Amino acid sequence: MKKLFYVLTAAIVTPLLGGCFETGSSAPPPPWANTGAPLYNSPDNGATAGDGRIKLEWIPTAGVEYWAFSATDPSLTAFNWTSLPNAKAVVAAPTPTYMCGLVNNLAYYFATNGRIDGGPGGPSSSMISATPYNASDSTYSHWVLNTNFSANVYGLGYTSLTTCANDTALSATGTFAAVGAGGAIFTSPDAISWTGQSSPVTTNLNAVAGYAANQNNASTPGLRWVAVGDGGKAVYSTDGINWIAATSTLTTQNLRSIIQVGGGFYAVGDAGTIISSIDGNSWSAATSGTAYRLNGIAHAGMYVAVGDHGTIVVNGGSGWVSLPYSSTPSTPSTSPTINNLRQVAAISTPYGSIYAAVGDSGTIVTSDSYLHNGTWTLVTLSGSPNLVGVTVEPRGVETTTAYTTAPAVDPWLRFISAAQFVAMDSAGNTYTSINGHDWTASASTGISACTTGTSCMNPLISSGFGYVAVGDNYQNAYAF
After folding, report:
1. Residue pLDDT, tens place only, 356-372
2. Enclosing domain of residue 460
3. Which pLDDT score is estimated for 5?
4. To which H or E segment does residue 470 belong?
5. pLDDT higher than threshold 80 for residue 332
């Protein structure tokens, strides 16, 4: 049986930390893995950096329970952590253990100690350090090119099966799915090695999404994947291996994008098609208010679908509304572009929601839930690259007074940004933004991405700890 463990922060200190033990004994701290490596910022000294997280590894002794401690102060030990900034402790920690939701480009320090049969913690280990990074930042260039698909992939999806502290590999806390030409379906535990699965359809599948109803339950995760494609086809799976064709989706239009929200699936496609389903088999249709092709859909408090001719369709809970075009939008009810929009990403953070859609000729349109009151603003990237994909993941934000007098308020959003957007153009180049409005050219994925057609629909996703992209000629790339 897997041993349970949990995370404490400095604000949650239990009597266990006060030495109230009646049985058991202390134990020596474990040696860090590869202890011959330099102490700080080495991938081989027991602390390996990733995007927004650090993997800790040590050499355990049987029968000893270890606790892992973390803070952003080099004075860290196993006994002073509660007084330090960004302090955390993982109780009954396995090896490897992961610290997640970290602030990129900020050094974190780690220590451990051990106990036997509930005894008091023993001496503190030596302290080690590592610094997490943005995996798509050009400074690090962590993109790795693969060519291990046997068909062109048009859609990618990720489903988290475990919370961060329960994962057992640096690049896998869940499962990935990819779909594409001729009904192709692939799955992967890490987005590096992919396995082809038998498909019940032969038409192109263009997008896939999924969720696990029971996270951290390996035997019954409650997994459900749904993929959609040409001719209104849909397939679904409860294990990622066995896929079943939906009876009917109520449409014969090509479906281009799909998302999962609260156990429901929402798909969009040609001629303004919008359909929804709970299980991937029985579908309901909605009226979108547009006849233009919808290429992408996202949700962060409200639903947003985008498509050709600058189409933006929104639903805040009272039905879908198509926004008309205006070159100088002054209200929330207009779109600022007539260029085709290829994809949209959205994120809801403790500080506010942000939406960003990308498209042809360097077009980006963005909105948020506060300052701009839903008004969409046009941004055009230098060089006017054709943008074919966009994704977003949560970003750790430094909020302790040890480093800043107050959390940094983004000047455009007028609230704190806790987001990291990444967009990709048709040449495989990436661009990053924390607010959806101000973008910086970043690292190249190395792939030859699409320029027109079906494969432009969804070539880039985030897993929450990095990014996966696909292009033409069976190419894919990942950055963790």
Report:
1. 999 999 999 999 986 56
2. 144-479
3. 47
4. strand 467-470
5. no
Identify whether the C-beta of residue 158 lies closer than 8 Å to the C-beta of residue 178: no
386 and 307 fall within a common domain: yes
Has residue 15 got a pLDDT over 60? no
Q: Tell me, yes or no, whether 63 and 162 share the same domain.
A: no
Indicate if the alpha-carbon torsion angle 457, 462, 463, 464 is positive or negative: negative
Which strand ranges, in their side-by-side order, compose the sheet holding 97-99?
47-49, 54-56, 97-99
Whether residues 23 and 148 share a domain: the answer is no
How much is the average pLDDT of 138-146? 77
* 166 and 50 within one domain: no
CATH (domain of 72): 2.60.40.10
Q: In this structure, are 233 and 362 located in the same domain?
A: yes
Q: What are phi and psi of 475, to 5 degrees?
A: -85, 145
Kindly report the length of the chain: 480
Tokens of 134: 């943005």
Beta strands in 301-426 (DSSP E): 303-307, 312-315, 321-323, 341-348, 353-359, 363-368, 377-380, 387-394, 419-425
> Do 25 and 117 share a domain, yes or no?
yes
Helix (H, G, I), strand (E, B) or coil at 454: helix
Compute the distance between CA of residue 152 and CA of residue 154 in angstroms, rounded to an integer: 7
Structure tokens at 286: 């909605």
* CA–CA gap between residue 244 and residue 32 (Å, rounded): 47
81 contacts: CB under 8 Å, gap ≥ 6: 10, 69, 70, 71, 87, 88, 89, 111
Tokens 């058991």: give the residue: 24
> Model-level pTM?
0.88
Nearest-angstrom CA–CA distance, 225 and 238: 6
In the numeric block, which tokens belong to residue 55? Answer: 């993997």
Q: Mark whether 168 and 90 lie in a shared domain.
A: no
Burial of 453 (0-12, 13-18, 19+ CB in 10 A): exposed
Quick check: helix, strand or coil at residue 18? helix
One-letter amino acid for residue 322 of the chain: S
